[in-house]
Design goal:
CATH architecture: 3-Layer(aba) Sandwich
Structural class: alpha+beta
Protein name: N-acetyltransferase domain-containing protein
Number of domains: 1
InterPro entries: Acyl_CoA_acyltransferase (IPR016181), GNAT_dom (IPR000182)
CATH topology: Aminopeptidase
GO molecular function: acyltransferase activity, transferring groups other than amino-acyl groups
Distance between the termini: 29 Å
Number of helices: 3
Helix content: 10-25%
CATH superfamily: Gcn5-related N-acetyltransferase (GNAT)
Order of helices and strands: EHEEEHEHEE
Shape: globular
Amino acid sequence: MFDLVKATKEDGPAIINLLQDVDSYYSELKLENFWLFKAASQLVAVIQLNPYPDFVFLSSLAVTPKNQHQKIASQLLAAVLKNTIQDIYLYTIIPDFFKKLGWQIIDQPKVKLPGKEPYECHACQPQKCVTIVKYASPT
């Protein structure tokens, strides 16, 4: 069982270490709006959800290397999605993972998303990068 907790300033080094371990760290990363998945007080996964007026942008999602391939990312997404009432967007090179969870690839978002430059998408795999969305459930 995992505990979902809001990250504090003290969690910053652990978040950075995890993102570096899984090659998801980018130089303009801001240590805000992170949530942590912990098991027995040990960090297992992180997610960063940046709020905007009309949507939420998922900027980071990472699972510790020793805990990968155990559906933890799916569990973390489910845990944070149940409390999110806005559409959630992200840029990803693994759209199939998200599509299995009900996300949709889109060509033209209905909102103005942040640019890809701060996330260093050009240094990743820009030819594979797509925009994907999880539409909020109607209330």
